[in-house]
Amino acid sequence: MVKANKLRNALRKARYAVLSRVYGRESEKARPSQHSIQDYWRDPPGKNNQPGAYIDLTEKSEALVRLAEELSVPKGPVLEIGSNVGRSLQSFLDHGWSDLSSIEINPQAVAKMAELFPEAADIAKVHNMAVEDAIVSMPDRHFDLVFSKAVLLHIHPDSEWVFEHMVRVTKGTLLVVENEDQQSYKLFPRKYRPIFEGLGMVQVDERILPEVGQTYIARSFRHPEAV
Ligand SMILES: C[S@@+](CC[C@H](N)C(=O)[O-])C[C@H]1O[C@@H](n2cnc3c(N)ncnc32)[C@H](O)[C@@H]1O
Asked: β-strands 125-127, 143-149: how paired?
C-alpha cells in the first residue's frame, strides 16, 4: 500500500515535471483536470509550494489584518480558504479575532501548523480537504470575513461554482487577494470584480497591498444590504 502510494506520487511528480518542460509556463495546451490540480496541491512537487515557503512572510498576513481593520470587520467568525501553515490565521488571532476557520487541502501544511503556529492551530477549526468538498456544508451568511490570498488562481474552471458558495457563507466581507493575469498550464487567472458582482455582491474596496506584491489585487465585496 505504502509502496503503491509512493509510486503514484513519483509518477504524478514526473508528469508535472515533463508537462512544465514540454509546454512551458505560458501554454494552455496541457491544461490538467480538476483532479490533477487538486492532487498537485495535496502534495506539491518541488520547493516553491512546500509548506516551508509560507512560514515567514508575516508582513503579508499583517497587511490583510490591517485591511480588515480599516474595513471595520467585526471580531466575529472568519473563514480563510487555502490557509496553508496558518500564518494569516495567527495574525488574525494576534489582532483579536478568535473564531477562526479555514479550509486547506494539503495535509502536510495542516500538520506543520500545529508546530509553527500552535496557538492558531489550537483555536482554529481547520478543514483539511478541498474547498470543493468543505464549503458546501458550511452555513449561510455565517462569516464576518471570508478571505483567500493566492488561492483562487489555483481553482480549476470546473470548480468555479465554489465562488457562489463563498458568497453564500459570507455575512459581512468577502476579501480576495489574487493575481488576475498570471498565465500557466496550471493557473486559472480571472477578473474577480465581474465574477462576484455577477453573483450579487458589491465591490466596496480595491487596492494593491505593497506587502503582498504589485501583481496581486485585493478586492473586498459585501452583500448589497450590508454596504
Ligand atoms: C499559493 S498557496 C497560498 C497560501 C496562503 N493563502 C498564503 O498566501 O500564504 C495556495 C494554497 O491554497 C491551497 N489550495 C489549493 N487548491 C486548493 C483547494 N482546491 N482546496 C483547498 N485548498 C487549496 C494550497 O494547498 C495552498 O496552501
From this structure: unpaired
